[in-house]
């Protein structure tokens, strides 16, 4: 009988342990369920973030392409202006040269012509004066 009582006590103790373990198991199941639910939400959010990042990257690439194209157009326009300005500068340089060097050359020719004409006229006058034509 004493053994029955010991067994009975042992059974009660084991039943308490089993009940406690079942309680822990239920808590663990609930925690696993909550973690699974949280993980599912987290995975969905990560998918959404991934899609949004793809969109951002795509938009960024498009913006870079548009910016690059605009810069290329602007560079071409600036190159055309530089070529145009170089042509204008060449024309202006030729005009300045015409007005300075060529004009000075023509003035020198005229002055030289006047001086030579005056010298020749003086010589002729001197010769005529010596001959007697007064």
Describe this structure as you would to a colleague.
The chain is mainly α. The model has no long low-confidence stretch (mean pLDDT 90). The protein has one helix spanning 2-131.
Give a quick summary of the entry.
Helices cover 97% and strands 0% of the residues. The protein contains 1 helix and no strands. The longest helix has 130 residues, at 2-131.
Strand content: under 5%
**SSE string:** H
Which outline best applies? rod-shaped
Helix content: over 70%
Gap from first CA to last CA: 186 Å
Query: Which structural class do the helices and strands define?
Result: mainly alpha
Whole-angstrom Rg: 56 Å
Low-confidence runs of at least 5 consecutive residues: none
Counting DSSP H or I runs of 4 or more residues, the number of helices is: 1
Features:
mainly alpha; 97% helix; 134 residues; rod-shaped
Write the layout of secondary structure elements.
Layout: H1 2-131
């Amino acid at each position: 009988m004493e053994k029955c009582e010991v067994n009975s006590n042992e059974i009660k103790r084991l039943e308490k342990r089993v009940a406690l373990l079942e309680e822990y198991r239920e808590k663990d199941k609930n925690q696993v369920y909550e973690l699974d639910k949280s993980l599912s939400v987290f995975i969905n959010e990560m998918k959404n973030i991934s899609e949004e990042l793809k969109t951002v990257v795509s938009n960024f690439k498009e913006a870079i392409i548009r910016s690059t194209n605009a810069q290329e157009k602007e560079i071409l326009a600036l190159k055309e202006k530089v070529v145009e300005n170089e042509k204008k500068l060449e024309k202006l340089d030729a005009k300045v040269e015409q007005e300075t060097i060529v004009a000075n050359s023509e003035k020198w020719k005229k002055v030289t012509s006047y001086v030579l004409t005056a010298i020749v006229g003086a010589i002729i006058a001197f010769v005529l004066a010596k001959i007697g034509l007064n």
